[in-house]
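Feature request, filed as a ticket because there's no other form

It would be nice if the structure record came with a short human-readable summary line next to the C-alpha cells. Right now we just get the raw output. Example of a typical job, pasted below so the devs can see what we mean:
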Amino acid sequence: MGRGRPSMQELIQRRRNAGFVGRQRELHAFRNNFGLPPEDGRHRFVFHVHGHAGVGKTWLMRRLEETARREYGALTARVDEAAGSVPEAMAAISEQFARQGREFTALDRRLATYRQRRHEAESVPAEGERTGPSTGSMVAARAGLTGLGLVPGVGALAGAVDPVPLAEGTDRLRAALSSRLRDHKDVQLVLDPVETLTPLLVRELSEAAAAVPWLVLFFDTYERLGPLLDPWLRTLLTSERLGTLPANTVLVLAGQTRPDPGCWGDLADVVAELPLEPFTDAEARQLLGAKGITDEPVVREVLRLSGRLPVLVSTLAENPGTGGDLDDPSATAVDRFLKWERDPVRRSAALAGALPRRLNEDIFRAAVDEDIFRAAVDEDGAELFGWLRSLPFIGDRHGAARYHDVVRAPMLRLRRTTSPQRWIAAHTRLAETFAGWREAAAGGLDPRDGWRLAAWSGPRLEEWYHLLCARPSAALPGALRDGIGACDAGPAVARRWASTLVEAGEDADSDAVRTWGWSLVEALADERRRGIEAMGLLLARAGLDAPARVAALVVRGWHRRSVEEFDGALEDFRRALELDPGNVRAHFGRAVVHRATGDFTAAMDALDGVAALEPGSTWVQRERGETCRRAGRYEEALALLDPVVAADPADHVALGSRGQTMMALGRIQEALADFDRAIELNGDYTWALVRRARVRSTLGDAAGALDDLDRAEALEPAIAGTLGERGDIHRFAGRYEEAIAEYDRALALDPGYAWALGSRAMANEALGRRAEALADLDRAVALNPGYAWAVAQRERLLLGGDSPEGGRNDGPG
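Raw output as currently delivered:
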C-alpha cells in the first residue's frame, strides 16, 4: 500500500464516524481544548460528561476517544466499572497503551509481582489436603498481610488493600507473609499498592507524554467508579505526593451523576462539565434520516417511543416497523421492538438474553428455557447469539455482551411480571450453571479462600445474583453469610458482593435485598476501613448462626487490627473464642495484636494457644522466634529459629529473620551469610536486600550496600525505608549533605518515619547544626516515645556530649 494511504479499517471507521449525529457542542468543546496550551487559563484538564442512562454517554466517549487519537495524535486508554480497584485501573491503562506501542515496562513488572503474590495465595489447596499447607499455614494466609502486627506506625495505610499472602510452599506460607511485615519498607507494595504503584504509573505517563502531543484517559460508568477513584484522581491533580502528572494529560469522566462536590467542588477552574440531555428533535431526525427513515408518521412514533434517548432512537431506527403498528397507544419501546421482530425464536432470544448481567454464548445457552427455543439453539446457537449481539442496545465490554440498562430493565420487568414461574425457573437454572463453573474452576477450594480467586468469585457473584432474583427472601440469609468471606478477601471483592445485592434487589424488585445491598455499599465506602462496618451490620441485623458469628468476629478483628483499633480487635477475638475455643485464626489474631502493642508476654501466651491446636507446626515456631527477636531476646530468638532453618534450609524467610537476629548479636559475618543465602533463594526478597545493605555498610562495603539498595528500589520504588538506609550509607561515608538529601526524600514520603529523623539529626550534628539536630530528635521522640536511641541522643546533645563513634541509629528495623 502506498505511503500515507489509509487502511481499510481507517476508511471503515471514517464512514462510521460520518454517521455520528448530535453532540456537536460537546465535540466542539473537546476539540477546542486541544488548541489551548496547558498553560492557558482557559485549558481544562478534566471533562465530566454526565446524564441519565441511555442518553449516549458511552457513545460520546467512544467518539471523543477516536477524535483524540485520529485528529490530535493522542495516546488514550478507557477504564470502566470492570476495574474493581485502583491497581486494576492502572493495569487497564497500561494494557491499552501497550496496544498503541507504548509499554509501561516498570509498572507492568510491579503489577505482575502484585498479581503473583495474590495468585500464589489463591492457588493454595484447601485445608486438610495432604499436599497443601497445614491448617496453620492456611490460617496465616487468611489472616492477611496487614493483620500480622509487624508494622508499627503504619496506621490507616494498613487498610488500603486486600490481605494477600505470599505462598512459598508447604508451611512456608506463613513465613513468607511474616517476611513482608517487618516494617513499612517491606510491605508497601501489598499494604498500599496505590502508594507504591502510582509513582511508577506517573513516571511512565511522563515518559510517554514526552513523545506524543497528548495523553487522554477516559473513565466510563463513573457513577460506579467515582467512589473508588475520586480520592486517587484528586491526589494526582492537586498534590505532588505520588508524582507529577504531565501537563499534556486530559481526563474524561462519564457517569450518570454530576461530579461529587466534596471532591471536585474546588476544581471548577480545571473541570469542564458536559451535561447530556436527550437528543433534540433535530438531532433525532438527523439520525433517523441517516438510516433512511423519513416517513413522518414513523418518525413521530419513534420520537414518542424513544423519548429521544439516543440508545432507543438507534434501536428503533434499526426496526422502524410499519404504519399498521403505529395505532397502539400503549406501546413501549420494548414492546415495539418485540412486535417488529416477527421470528418467535428471536423474540424469545431477546428476552432470555436479558436475564444474565453479562452475556457470552455459554451463558446465553444456559438462559434458554423453551423447548422450541432450546432446539433452535442446539441447532444454530452461534448464529442466533451473533444476531443478538448485533442489536444496537447490546454493547461489548471485556469480551462479554451487555444490554443497555434502558432496554434491559423493562425486559426484566416484562419477564418477571408476565410469567413469575418461568422467571424463577430461568434464574434458578442460571444459578446452577454458574455454580457448576465455580466448582470446576476451584477444584474444591475452601470458599474462604475462593473469594480471592477470580475464577471462583466471579461465578459465585453471578450465582448469588440469580438466586436472589429467583427467590429473594429465601436466598438473602445465605448471601449475607457468604459476604463474610467476600469482605475478608478485601475491599474490591466486598464492593462487588454488595453491588450484586443492590442489582438483584432492583431487578427482582425486592425491598429487603435492595435495602441490605445499599446499606452494605455505604458501610464499605471507606476502603481503608475495609469490612469493619459491614461486619457490624451483619452481626447486628443478619441473624447469623454461631459459626457465621465467629467468622464475622474474626474478620472484623483482623480488620480492626489493620487500622490499629487494638482494643476492639482483642474484644472481637475474645468473643469469637468464647463461641469457638478451637479457632486458630482468633488465637493467632490475639498474638498479633499483643505483639503490635509491645505486650510480648501476652503474644507468646496466645501463640501457646495456637501451638496446642497446631502441634509441631513450623510457622508457630517461626512466630515465636520473631516475637522474641522483636522483644530484644535475641538468644532465645536464635534458639527458636535455628531448628526452623535446619528443618528447611531453603526457607528464605527464616534465614532472613535469623540474619537480622545475628546482626543484633554482633555476629556480622553470620548475618551476611544468612542474607546471602536468603537472597540467593529469592532474588526479589526486598526486606533482605535492605538489611544486607546495612550489614555490608557495617563491614565497610559501601559500594555493595548501595548496589543492594539499588536492587531494592528497582523492585519497590518510592519506599521511605530504602531511602533512609541510603542516607545512612552516605552518612557513615562522611557525605552528610547527600545523607540529609536522602533523609529528606524519605520523610517526604513518610513524615512519621521517626528512624529517618533520628539519623538526619546525626548528620545535622556532624555539620554543626545542633539546633536542627535537636529539633529532629524532639520530633522523633514525640512520634515514638519508646524510641530509646533517640531519647539517649537527645539527652547527650542537651548535656553537650560528643557524638558516639559512627552514630549508629538503633531504631526499629
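Something like this underneath would help us a lot:
Residues 16-20, 119-187, 322-331 have pLDDT under 50 and may be disordered.
The longest strand covers residues 249-255.
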